[in-house]
């Protein structure tokens, strides 16, 4: 039984030269990754003929390794110094921490926050992972840490939003998120409103603005007195902005979607021609993807 399983796991040999050529080449591991040499030497440096062996070279095979998360403890030792004459006590101040009198370092807080934002890794799952690494952190504690971390990062978010609102063109969109209010026992739909600079801007930035609803007033409160061109979909919540000093720029993907739905339902020849024209437009966009704004205007 075990032999059959091993044979199934064994790589299949190519049937001919063409299959051999089609086989993928070994992946080159990035040079920036640190290396640790593991040496394998013969049991003896003497030949079976009793002569001494001389090293003439080596074969190197690289294997990708990953060490699981491991906790360490930083011991911050603040030595006390005193003057024997006047009894003046001197001691280094307590270094600033993100959480006053808390146990997590800035690196641990970043390790907690990044998987939540980028990987949607919830706190109870992280708590289990940390438990396997030697120190289980309750998910309620992780939630408290992230709350404090968010308050500490707010000045950076405000500064980023200020820089973003200095851009002449912005993209906007909104996405639903589940929100759990204390005492309700169930989630309701809230929204993350996102605002970002264009691909042609020298400043690459995205700001997320949380709101408990999809009401258009949330976009108005974020943009306030901003004047420029807003690239967004045809959501009615943005329409009030365009009655002020903001210019509307619709996305071609939303326009094409209506034609695609119409063609999928009716197979109309005129609609098919419109879809082909969209394809030509997308071809032009691909050609000028790396071209600056002035060159784009010449097309």
TrEMBL record:
Pfam families: DDE_Tnp_IS66, zf-IS66. It comes from the Bacteria. Residues 46-87 form the Transposase IS66 zinc-finger binding domain. Residues 101-296 form the Transposase IS66 central domain. InterPro entries: Transposase-related, Transposase_IS66_central, Znf_dom_IS66. PANTHER family: BLL1576 PROTEIN (PTHR33678). NCBIfam families: transpos_IS66 (NF033517). This is IS66 family transposase. It comes from Noviherbaspirillum galbum.
């Amino acid at each position: 039984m075990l032999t059959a399983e091993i044979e199934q796991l064994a790589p299949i040999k190519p049937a001919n030269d063409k299959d051999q050529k089609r086989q993928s080449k070994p992946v080159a591991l990035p040079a920036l990754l640190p290396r640790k040499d593991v040496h394998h030497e013969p049991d003896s440096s003497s030949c079976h003929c009793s002569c001494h062996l001389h090293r003439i070279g080596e074969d190197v095979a690289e294997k990708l390794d990953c060490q699981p998360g491991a906790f360490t403890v930083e011991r911050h030792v603040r030595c006390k110094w005193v003057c024997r004459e006047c009894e003046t006590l001197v001691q280094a101040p307590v270094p600033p921490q993100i959480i006053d009198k808390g146990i997590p370092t800035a690196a641990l807080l970043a390790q907690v926050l990044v998987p939540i934002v980028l990987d949607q890794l919830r706190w109870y799952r992280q708590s289990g992972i940390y438990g396997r690494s030697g120190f289980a952190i309750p998910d309620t504690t992780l939630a408290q840490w992230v709350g404090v971390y968010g308050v500490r990062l707010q000045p950076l978010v405000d500064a980023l939003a200020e820089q973003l609102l200095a851009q002449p063109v912005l993209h906007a969109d909104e996405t639903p998120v589940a929100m759990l209010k204390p005492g309700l026992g169930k989630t309701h739909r809230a929204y993350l409103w996102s605002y970002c600079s264009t691909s042609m801007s020298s400043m690459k930035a995205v700001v997320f603005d949380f709101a408990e609803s999809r009401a258009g007033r949330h976009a108005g409160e974020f943009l306030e007195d901003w004047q420029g061109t807003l690239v967004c979909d045809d959501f009615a919540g943005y329409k009030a902005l365009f009655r002020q000093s903001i210019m509307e720029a619709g996305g071609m993907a939303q326009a094409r979607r209506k034609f695609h739905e119409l063609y999928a339902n009716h197979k109309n020849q005129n609609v098919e021609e419109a879809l082909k024209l969209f394809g030509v437009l997308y071809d032009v966009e691909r050609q000028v993807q790396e071209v600056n704004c002035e060159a784009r205007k010449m097309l």
